[in-house]
Specification:
The structure is a single chain. Helices cover 25% and strands 24% of the residues. With 212 residues, the chain is an alpha/beta fold.
């Protein structure tokens, strides 16, 4: 039984979700780098990356379900035209109610996911960031608009290619250095992208800008 099933009654079919935080900022990585966006961060993750920079999100019990209507109302109070749903791992939860409510407000909806679970909801852009310890479900690959692979060691290039072979032709490909290994890996990533120009490089620019 997964987290979604355990919390079915509490979530009321997705009308409530375990909200960690929501805030207006600038997208710091991937295809939409530099774009103003309103972030909705959900609690709960069963992937457990050792280098995760949001480990406080892992335990959903720490974040009582919040009314989605309240979240949407706050999002609409800012000038952002793009919404990023992230986590944690948002695919653990029923997202149809949230994405429908945001779409009715004319907002673009972006998803950040490891792809570890089947998706619900409707999105204008899906960023898939696969993790070795819990690989994506097969159904996510044709839906991905962006593949963003975190590079921690030289062996991760093979993992990147393994996933790139499964996404659609129009999917944008990104290699991103794991933050704590940036200095040790960025030269190799640059050389790899130069030799394999289907790949782009993403860096966590929000950390340089010192914004959330």
């Amino acid at each position: 039984m997964n987290l979604q099933q355990n919390n079915e009654d509490l979530l009321d079919g997705g009308r409530r979700l375990p909200l960690v935080e929501d805030f207006y900022t600038i997208q710091g990585e991937g295809f939409h780098t530099g774009k103003p966006a309103y972030f909705i961060r959900l609690g709960g993750c069963d992937v457990g990356c050792r280098w995760c920079d949001a480990k406080m999100t892992w335990n959903p019990k720490l974040f009582p379900p919040t009314e989605v209507d309240t979240i949407v109302e706050r999002a609409c109070s800012y000038p952002a035209q793009a919404i990023v749903i992230t986590g944690g791992e948002p695919s653990l939860y029923p997202l149809d109610y949230l994405t429908d409510a945001l779409a009715k407000q004319g907002l673009q909806i972006f998803l950040e996911t490891s792809g570890a679970h089947e998706l619900s909801g409707h999105f204008d852009w899906i960023c898939l960031s696969p993790k070795k310890q819990q690989p994506p479900v097969p159904s996510i690959f044709p839906k991905a608009d962006e593949l963003k692979v975190i590079i921690e060691t030289p062996g991760d290039f093979a993992w990147a290619e393994e996933n790139a072979a499964k996404v659609g032709e129009r999917c944008r490909l990104y290699l991103q250095p794991e933050w704590s290994r940036y200095d040790g890996m960025i030269e190799a990533i640059v050389e790899y992208a130069k030799g394999n120009p289907q790949w782009n490089i993403s860096v966590q620019t929000h950390k340089y800008m010192r914004i959330p």
